[in-house]
Amino acid sequence: MEKFTSGLELPVGLGLALEQYNAMDYFFSLPAEAQHQIVDHTYTIQSKNEMLDFVHSIVSAK
User: Are 21 and 59 in contact (CB under 8 A)?
Assistant: First the structure.
């Protein structure tokens, strides 16, 4: 996975949510700074449903 993230450690919950929304390609097409901001935000998320809502908000904004 590291070759895809350029060293960015993708949290498991984020990865699972991205897969659920078939949004992994979209996430990796974002600029590195945007990816880092998304990952940083995930550390404030407390539940699976909150993570799914967050990822949904990202992919629905595209």
Answer: yes
